């Protein structure tokens, strides 16, 4: 069976991306990255749940804690708190290129891997490493850099969907949204303040739907 590597954090986007890959007939290899993120415990728990739920054949958790040690991100720095004004705090310097580099390296070790999926949504992008231009450049990089299995391609199937569109699509794919986790502030309870929390809440509200995972403090 052909295989696909899914970069997965357990949020709505990457989990829907896994569901899409499975629906296309791929055997799933999950890749979760520990870059020192504040919500790591939740990401590990939820991606393990989804690995079981979707029958992932492999689930690697790769250590990139050096990214967090470099700092300069609200995602990793204990002394940077999220607020409702500075959405740029969710950017982690060059993170997605590093994650995709790990996925490309993994793909080079397994000739069954045909595809790498990442759950980047539509713009405008707070993080430029979610744009179609970035994905295209990583594809070009992979084709030039890989010695073996270099027909592998990277795809971001949600790159044309905003968050309400992603939620609607996730419902079509019957993604168990109650098990997804979006907050990047911590792993115990959604803060309701960080950009991903606000974006998720606004998207559900715009659709007139209740978030099955909502348990906000505010
Ligand atoms: Zn939050």
Task: Count up the helices.
Answer: 7
Residue windows where pLDDT falls under 50 for at least 5 positions: none
CATH class: Alpha Beta
Evaluate the radius of gyration. Answer: 16 Å
β-sheet strand percentage: 5-15%
- Number of extended strands: 5
Which architecture name does CATH use?
A: 3-Layer(aba) Sandwich
- Looking at the structure, the CATH topology is Rossmann fold
| Ligands bound, unique | zinc ion
Strand line-up of the largest beta sheet: 3-2-1-4-5
Percentage of residues in helical conformation = 25-40%
Structural class: alpha/beta
How confident overall, as mean pLDDT? 96
Number of domains: 1
Task: Please describe the biggest sheet, giving its number of strands, its sense, and whether it closes into a barrel.
Answer: 5 strands, parallel
Shape: globular
CATH-defined superfamily? HUPs
Order of helices and strands: EHEHEHHEHEHH
Distance between the termini: 47 Å
Short description:
This protein is an alpha/beta fold and 218 residues long. 38% of the residues lie in helices and 12% in strands. Helix 6 (163-172) packs across helix 7 (195-207).
Overview of this protein structure:
- The N and C termini lie far apart (47 Å).
- This protein is α/β, with parallel strands linked by helices and 218 residues long.
- The chain contains 7 helices and 5 strands; from the N terminus they run βαβαβααβαβαα.
- It has a single domain (3-162), classed as HUPs (Rossmann fold).
- The longest helix has 14 residues, at 40-53.
- The chain is globular and about 45 Å long.
- The model has no long low-confidence stretch (mean pLDDT 96).
- Helix 1 packs across helix 6.
- The protein has a 5-stranded parallel beta sheet, sandwiched between helices.
- Bound molecules: zinc ion.
- Residues 183-185, 190-191, 193-194, 197 line the site of zinc ion (ZN).
């Amino acid at each position: 069976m052909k295989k696909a590597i899914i970069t997965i954090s357990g949020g709505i986007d990457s989990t829907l991306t896994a569901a899409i890959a499975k629906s296309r007939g791929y055997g799933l290899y999950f890749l979760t990255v520990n870059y020192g993120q504040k919500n790591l415990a939740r990401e590990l728990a939820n991606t393990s749940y989804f690995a079981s739920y979707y029958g992932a054949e492999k689930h690697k958790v790769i250590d990139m804690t050096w990214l967090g040690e470099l700092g300069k991100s609200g995602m990793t720095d204990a002394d940077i708190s999220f607020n409702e004004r500075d959405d740029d705090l969710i950017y982690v310097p060059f993170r997605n290129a590093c994650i995709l580099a790990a996925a490309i390296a993994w793909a080079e070790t397994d000739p069954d891997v045909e595809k790498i999926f990442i759950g980047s949504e539509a713009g405008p992008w707070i993080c430029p490493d979610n744009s179609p231009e970035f994905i295209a450049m990583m594809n070009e990089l992979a084709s030039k850099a890989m010695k073996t299995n270099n027909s592998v391609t990277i795809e971001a199937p949600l790159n044309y969907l905003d968050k309400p569109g992603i939620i609607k699509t996730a419902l079509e794919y019957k993604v168990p949204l109650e098990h997804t986790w979006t907050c990047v502030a911590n792993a115990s309870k959604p803060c309701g303040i960080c950009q991903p929390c606000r974006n998720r809440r606004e998207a559900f509200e715009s659709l007139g739907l209740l978030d099955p995972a909502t348990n906000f403090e505010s």
